[in-house]
# Entry
Amino acid sequence: MNWSKSAAVRESCATPDACATDPQQTLYERLHHFAGGGWILILLLVLVAGFWIARPAQFGSTYNLTMLAVNAAILLVLSVGQTYVIVSAGIDLSVGAVLVFSSVASAQTMLWLSGEPAGTFGTTSGGWGVIAAGLLVAVASGAAWGALNGALVALVRIPALIVTLGSLGMALGLAQVLTGGVDVRAVPDLLVTQVGNGTLLGIPMLVVIAALVAIVAAIALHLTRFGLQVFAVGSNAEAARRSGIRLRRRIVSVYMLSGMLAGLAAMMSIARFSTTTINGHAMDNLSTISAVVLGGTSLFGGVGTMMGTVIGVFIPIVLLNGFVILGIPPFWQTVAMGAVLILAVWIDQIKRRVRQG
Amino acid sequence: MSAIPLLEARSVSKRFGHVQALDGANFSVYPAEICALIGDNGAGKSTLVKILSGADRPDTGRILLEGREVALAGPLAAQQMGIATVYQDLALAPDLAASDNLFLGREIVRGGVLGRLGFLDRREMRARAARQFARLSVRLRSPRVPVSSLSGGQRQSVAIARAAMWADKVIFMDEPTAALGVAQTARVIDLIRQVRDQGIAVVLISHNMTQVIEIADRVEVLRLGKRVARIDKSAATVEGLVAAMTSAPAREEAA
# Structure
């Protein structure tokens, strides 16, 4: 028995605040937590600094930096949803296909509401009402695909890898059925000029939308009960279930969120390219997964930060941009990304082993 | 020992197919005591614990909480009545901090609009967690690091502190020190005593007879689905306990 020691401990924790404050959490640990591993932020800064120093006029130009952000915007919105799914110990391979389906459904709706025949080329005169209807269709169809994914994972208990691989095929196939494989190439002029090419206070509208999505999603993930429960589900589903968290509902809601964000990304894609891009999203799932994992989110679930994902999204985009500016064949970006991804997962596993050892 | 048991099983039977797991078993635990529940493999310990913690339903028999008959519809219903179980590994989310684990499923939200939006009051959660750890003399390297980076003993302490936070009557502990080293075991045993001293009854399932004699106030012995002995701390010896578990006639003594 050790009553004397117990008494001493009690004394040192006499006030709750004395125990609540945490002198042992160093600045490094805080940074580590914030940036999801730290090293990936350093890698991004090194890349940016390197390209900037090598070609200050081209890489550092306002135009180039703006284009970097615009290129990242759609991928970021998809990656935000992917972050939630992976933190909950799931995976969503269907994001790109759901984007394609949502964009087709939305573009066809907007075309029909504008009274234009199918096969119209260019832009239509659809107003904000038509655009709102298109957005609704895009987000609702994304939510429906997400609900299907979530229900199959949580209720039927089919592995997420298989469920979302299946829905990838179904969503892409149905998009091709709806269009006969030909892109819908006419969208409201307002959408293209105001959203796709529009700016707010000098910032491209697509970047504003993506930033807002990322900020709201980061707050929800890190500061709310919903977010904490997503972490708990990913960390130990059985413990979460036993402590009264509605496990199935959480899983379904996470996949629905990913689907809805794919629907929003579909609208952004239509606005940017003024056409659907049926064949342009085959790599979106792998791009988002590598962005999320690069950002320090663990593929095993329970660990991750939204800030890390934002950094992870920019790595491949900055790499490609820098390689093009330096005159390195851009195909090397694919090679470099593959290597960085393997490195990121390796580091995640080392961190796990160190912690559990 | 007070006259009315805090939690009592009367003539509880449970059959799984051809296996009679419990055969009219009685069991009682009194307020603020550490009661060891021992028995050989297959004696019915885990079935009894599952029934008393709401995870399973008995075929026949009655369960009384503070002298009143209750129906434990499920683990959550049992928890709401003040009965909790500390499982060996499954209790915690390893990637979450100790304070977050303490409030898993019962998170504290802020007041007002932010609370309605589900914003956590992490400061309050940390403060209450710190008070709970202080009350039970649980000392952690840091309440903010993930539980997985704590030692096995500290993890078990967090799990016990969590149960003691939400169960004010009975906590079942299934082999709480099975995976721990000597020093960590001593600390967890200390913690179990602290929980009892808070006025919570502890039912300890253990195969370690020396440990049972060291910390239990009373021992109840199960054999072939029946209670065959109730032994007071003063009368307990390792030989006596082993004999009761294995060789004593399987008769149900008057409760």
Summary: Chain B touches chain A through 43 residues (CB under 8 Å). The longest strand of chain B covers residues 19-29.
